[in-house]
Amino acid sequence: MTMDTFTIGFPRMGPHRELKFALEKFWKGALSEAELLAAAARVEEEAWRRQRAAGVQRVGLDGTLYDQVLDTIAWTGTCPPRFQHLSGLSRYFAMARGAPSAPALDMSKFFSTNYHCLIPEPEAAPGGTPAAPELGPLLERLERGQRALGAEAAVPMVVGPVTFALLARSSPLPPHEAVARLLPAYCLLLRELAQRRVPELQLHEPALATSQAAEPGVRQAFEAAYAELAKAGVPLNLVVPYADLDEQVYPWAVRLPVATLTLDFLGGGAGDCACTGANRTLALITAHGFPHAERRLGAGVVDGRSVWADRDGTAASILRALLHLGIPPSRLAVTSSVSLQHLPYDTALEGTHMPARLEGRLAFAVQKLDEIVAAAATTPNGGAAAAGGQRAAAAEVDGSAAAAVAALRALGPAAYARSLPFGERRGLQLQTHAFPTTTIGSFPQTLEVRRLRQKLKAGTLSRAEYEAAVSGHIAHCVGIQEGLGIDVLVHGEAERTDMVEYFGEKLGGMWFSAAGWVQSYGSRCVRPPVIEGDIAWQGPMTTWEYKVAQSFTSRPVKGMLTGPVTILNWSFPRKDVSREAQAAQLAAALRAEVAALEAEGCRIIQVDEPALREGLPLKRCLWAPYLAWAVDAFRLATAVAAPGTQVVTHLCYSDFEDILPAIDAMDADVLTIENARSGDAMIKALVGSSYGRDVGPGVYDVHSPEVPSVEFIRSRIRMFMASGVAGGRADRVWVNPDCGLKTRGWAETLASLRNMVEAAAAERVAAAGAAGVQGVVAAGKKGVAGGEGEGEGGCANGGCCGR
User: Fold this and answer.
1) Which residues contact 581 (CB under 8 A, 6 or more apart)?
2) Known active-site residue 353
3) In angstroms, rounded to a whole number, what is the distance separating the alpha carbons of residues 563 and 565?
4) What is the CATH number for 721?
5) In terms of Cα–Cα distance, which of 121, 22, 111 is closest to 66?
6) Which residues are L-homocysteine-binding (predicted)?
7) How much is the pLDDT for 383?
8) Which of 342, 433, 491, 703 is catalytic?
9) Which residues contact 595 (CB under 8 A, 6 or more apart)?
10) Is residue 710 part of a domain?
11) How far is the CA of 540 from the CAs of 461, 519, 605, in angstroms?
């Protein structure tokens, strides 16, 4: 008997990113609301039909205009009061992107992925009582799905109530009370679905795979919620992606009153299950059994995180083990371990770009559908397994990763530590006035810049012509920053399509797809590289643009690198060696790049690690090993820097306050952070932990088109000083945006930065007046030591300004 098949998510942007372009046209006023909704419907329905055509029996009706958590905020009636004066798509997109006097919702990584979700706010309405549910878009999507697929194949899917409640991190309510307030909306939805005779409702509850699920209050919330939801009579499919269940959670989780419990059999993402062969979910079922007489087991056995094809029949092997445990095929249903939204669309889109060595070895979302259907044909004694092996497949390009890591470890502790402690080296680095200003790295990417890169790749522009044109863009960017009065400059990254792709293309052992786009948030898509072999530095990657930028200014210019853990976490890694080994190889390559920048005179080097936290396993008991090698990788990459070189790192859009000891152990000289949306949570955590290094809290939200006022930014700076962050030292509190400016337009960028510099200058004057200090640098003047004789004195090390 063939097992049932279903999907729990699929890429949402379309094979050619049709929805991305429609969204961006709509935001610019070039597309009407009706045209946007029609474009979204076409993308969704094409995806659903592809899944059905592949032989999948039940298709999860995935689709969103921005984010599934934002959709849940909308349909449950938990829109924050500051957006209540708006309606429809105006309200929806205002929650994501901000509006006048209505800052956008906080944004964070969705569990252990590089997908960003919006964060619900605990007090959704006065008294915390949700407004009336708005089920129209959900039911309209269902109706389209039923027309496209048939009623028995179309399965609605939503974020589960407990996960949704727990995402609101600062909720004053205990979990069971927060969930209880949401249940009327979920029950109303179920009543509507019952009338439409849906085969089931998928409730996605990744919170059940976290350590938080072991807390008594969370168990109470799950048990109470699902007892209530089960009364509606709609079959429930409780989907638990991104990790296995905790040993303490599994016994009660499998007794929840649902028709299907779908589990992830392929590990927690940050661990090395694929490399070691460990399968904790299968071990739990082996040890405790599964109540298949009462509910069906959804087996997430096709890897939704990895682009490597299942050439050894891992999925079939797991299914055979489940059959041998006595679970009949009729009580098993096959799906992916996590939503396929985290994968590119289709390898066929690569065309001739796909190298022969990788043909048949990669599987994107469309190919994973075939794996799901093939795995469902598994029989107890064989079938559905192909010869070879995933590990063997990866080994075709296997090199000496383990030996490389051993060699790096043999360098000893000195390779992982700066030559002087922070307290001694900080005085040798760049000296600034109060509230020095900078940006995080990228500046707007215009159509002209993108066309330059396309012409270079197409061969219609020579390398010399391309570099001359990029030099002009760098000069423009440097000139703008000087004109605005920014203290520490960046070159603007006109040559970079993406902060990982740029480095991946220059390192050995990495391959880039032509059409392997993955949604990061909203309309933002990235192309993660595929790590296919040993990673190696092949020569300087960033020195040219640094030298060009520095040649146009006497102010210091930062060297800009992406950190080893972020490159790893934003790539599709190998499965034949550990992630630790791959991080160490990346660190060694970046270490060589840091040395190359220093050799060219660079004395401020930014090594961004925004993905440090997202790689954490969902189980706290597994954090320490991951953080140990992640911090080691950053230190290996940066410890080569001389004491007088200031090492900066940037963290954003994740709950970094959870891992402050690890951040401290990174030993960066300056920590810049996203802060505008998060309610100053990280600031409070840094102060509470007595973090003693320089800090640059973001003063405005770069993911919103709203331009912050001077007074708003001044209020943020005053708050930083009142908090005592960076020891309350004004010369150690940097003023910068939340993140890079790549996605913003030039007009709003200039207006926002102009206000930022004016606000910093005004607060600098105010601070100097309060302290009775004279000679404060005026707005628009050189603000760092060594800048044409202005500032508060010369460079302590005689060369820290990068000249």
Assistant:
1) 401, 402, 404, 405
2) no
3) 6
4) 3.20.20.210
5) 22
6) 440-442, 608
7) 53
8) 703
9) 640
10) yes
11) 22, 30, 14
> Tens of pLDDT along 312-353?
899 999 999 999 999 999 999 999 999 999 999 999 999 999
Asked whether 265 and 300 are in contact (CB, 8 A), the reply is yes
Tokens of 238: 């409780």
Annotated binding-site ranges: 20, 114, 440-442, 493, 524-525, 570, 608, 650, 652, 674, 739
End-to-end Cα, the chain, rounded Å? 73
Q: Which of 360, 339, 423 is nearest to 157 (CA)?
A: 339
Max CA pair span of the chain: 85
- Residue ranges for the chain with pLDDT beneath 70: 1, 123-129, 268-278, 382-405, 654, 771-803
Q: What is the count of structural domains for the chain? A: 1
Q: pLDDT per residue over 23-46, tens digit each?
A: 999 999 999 999 999 999 999 999
Residue 602 lies in a domain: yes
* Domain range for 599: 433-503+540-771
153 φ/ψ angles, rounded to the nearest 5 degrees: -100, -15
- In the structure encoding, which two tokens stand for residue 211, read together? 């350590």
Amino acid at 397: V
Mark out the alpha helices in 28-127 (DSSP H runs).
33-53, 68-75, 88-97
Q: Is 60 among the domain residues? A: no
Q: What is the pLDDT of residue 404?
A: 65
| CA-derived radius of gyration, the chain | 26
* SS3 state at 675: coil
Q: How far apart are CA 373 and CA 334, in angstroms?
A: 8
Helices (H), 459-491: 463-484
Residues making up the annotated binding site for L-methionine are 440-442, 493, 608
- Which pTM does this prediction carry? 0.88
Structure tokens at 388: 């070879």
Identify which of 734, 620, 738 has the alpha carbon closest to the alpha carbon of residue 108: 738
The structure tokens 């007595």 sit at 690
Tokens of 556: 């210091």
Dihedral-angle region of residue 777 (phi above 0 means left; psi in -120 to 50 means alpha; beta otherwise):
beta
Q: Residue 665 falls within a domain, yes or no?
A: yes
User: Which residue pairs, CB below 8 angstroms and at least 24 apart, start in 664-667?
Assistant: 664/689, 664/691, 665/631, 665/635, 666/609, 666/631, 666/634, 666/635, 667/417, 667/418, 667/422, 667/635, 667/638, 667/639
Place of tokens 């094409």: 46
